[in-house]
Amino acid sequence: MSKINxxxxxxxxxxxxxxxxxxxxxxxxxxxxxxxxxxLSEAIEADRNDRHADLDKFKSYITKGGEFWRFxxxxxxxxxxxELADTAIRLFDFAxxxxxxxxxxxxxSYVVSKKKSFIENCFDIVRDIVNYKYTNEELVNxxxxxxxxxxxxxxxxxxxxxxxxxxxxxxxxxxxxxxx
Length: 180
Hints:
Layout: H1 6-19, H2 29-48, H3 55-63, H4 68-75, H5 80-97, H6 118-129, H7 136-153, H8 158-170
Helix pairs in contact: 1-5, 2-5, 2-6, 3-4, 5-7, 5-8, 6-7
């Protein structure tokens, strides 16, 4: 995997969320982390429904000059890959809001494992997110890397999906048309 500039992703996610109104009145740690958990729940639902991105079709249509927005919705939106990207983006946004440094951190032990199912791994990530023994900096750094590790088990290029989802999110309306 190429070297990831974690702080650049943090800044980009935070800037987009702020510009789209996501920091107006809902800036508590509990709200932010619950929204991370809902994204993991959506990834589980996508997995339960065997909904995965069809990258070959997406890239084929985009290469032929197709509309990004339309083909993102048809071939990527609401897939396991898309929801894991959303999970990471929410974590990056939380880091930006709280000015958390995401410089390379070494993780000596992962809660996710190839021996566990997708849903069990998601549960373990959630369990760590709500574990109050971690500082915000530890929690975010650790959780982001757990999500990336989980994606790697399924050969998901999470960085690519994050970049595509951020591009898609830039085209969306204020608060993505939602209450919060």
